[in-house]
Structure formats: structure tokens, C-alpha cells
Amino acid sequence: MIGYLRGRLAFKQPPALVVDVNGVGYECEAPMSTFFGLPVAGSEVSLHTHLVVREDAHVLYAFATEQERRLFRSLLKVSGVGPRIALGVLSGISVEGFLECIAAQDTDPLVRLPGVGKKTAERLLIEMRDRVKELSGPEPRVGGAVTGSTGPQSEAYSALIALGYRPTEAVRLLKTVTEEGVSTEELIRRALKAAAG
Predict the structure, then answer these.
(1) Which conformational region is residue 80 in: left (phi greater than 0), alpha (psi within -120 to 50 degrees), or beta?
(2) Does residue 44 register a pLDDT over 50?
(3) How far apart are CA 42 and CA 39, in angstroms?
């Protein structure tokens, strides 16, 4: 199993990308959420991966964050959802947005996603309700550095999740206290103050 790749981004054209790892080019497919955060071709990247083995192909999927990969893997366990639909979900809605839909039991944002109809959206709400906790864990480190988005807001979000806040609550708290140029520590302090107030 290939858990992650670290190397040079050789090529990117949605949904495909190639990561050159010591002279070996790994072809991957990635959701738009990952593509938006990719650097220019030729830059170093670290990506979490998931290998899907089919009868006719082995397909490697790449993700900027462990949370995206966790959501992808959880979506694959839902009956009627394959890699294409799972990529479409991740391309059309953030992990936090998806978790908010599950918490609110709201199918409207889900039916707007590619490949997701009313029945699939309802199945997602039912089958994903119990899996929300496994999706909200802290971001693991790969090779000593946190992968994916590592800005103050992302770090504060991970810290709030680690402190036991639900994803939707962490997002709500950070929306009320976020402003440009504020450190991670200050964001956490403000969010905890807002939660206590």
C-alpha cells in the first residue's frame, strides 16, 4: 500500500497529476480541493494517497490532507459510492462543509455535487452519521511536517478538534474570531474565549 508521496510535482492537469519520486513518476488523481493548493510544476510536494485496485487498473488517489483522505475512504464504504463520486464530493465541498451537512442532516448541498442524486445524498446522511468522529481527528505529520494547509486557521482548527470540539463547532468558532495576520495561538485563545462566553 502506498500511504504518501513526497517528491517533485512533474505535471498537473485536473484531475491528474504526476509526482516524481527519485526518478519514478507516480500518476495520481486528486480532487479539486487538493488541486487548488498545489504549487507550480517543479515544486516539492507531500501528498497522502489511497490505492484503489480494480480488475483493469490500479489507480492512486492523492490528497493534500489526511482529513480529505479519511473522508474519501469513508465515502467508499457507502453503498453505491465509488471513487468517481467520492472525488466529486471532495471537489465540490470541503471536509468541514460535508461534516456540517451530516450534522444538520441537510441533503440540499449534497444533491448539487456531481454524481450525487437525492437517494445517494440520503444514503450518505444515514451511513456517514456514525463515521463523523473518525473524520475529525487531528492532522498526522508526514516526514516531520504537517501536510496540506498549515496556515494559522488550519492549525487552530486542528487544535480545537484535538481539544474535543466537534468540526462544525470548531468552524463556527473560528469564523467569529479569524482576521488577517493573527497567530495560531491567538486564534485558539480567541476561539476558547468565544466558546466560554
Answers:
(1) left
(2) yes
(3) 8
Q: Cα 161 to chain center, whole Å?
A: 15
Please give the DSSP secondary-structure letter assigned to residue 129: G
Least confident of 113-117, 153-157, 170-174: 153-157
Say which CATH superfamily domain 66-135 falls into: 5' to 3' exonuclease, C-terminal subdomain (1.10.150.20)
Residue with the three cell numbers 497529476? 17
CA 103-159-38 angle, 5° bins: 85
How far is the C-alpha of 75 from the C-alpha of 153, rounded, in Å? Answer: 26
3-state secondary structure of 136: coil
The pLDDT of residue 136: 59
Domain 151-196, CATH homologous superfamily name and number: Ubiquitin-associated (UBA) domain (1.10.8.10)
CB atoms within 10 A of CB 35: 17
Task: Tell me the CATH number of domain 4-63, given options 2.40.50.140, 2.60.40.1930, 3.90.1490.10, 3.90.1180.10.
Answer: 2.40.50.140
Mean pLDDT of 83-88: 91
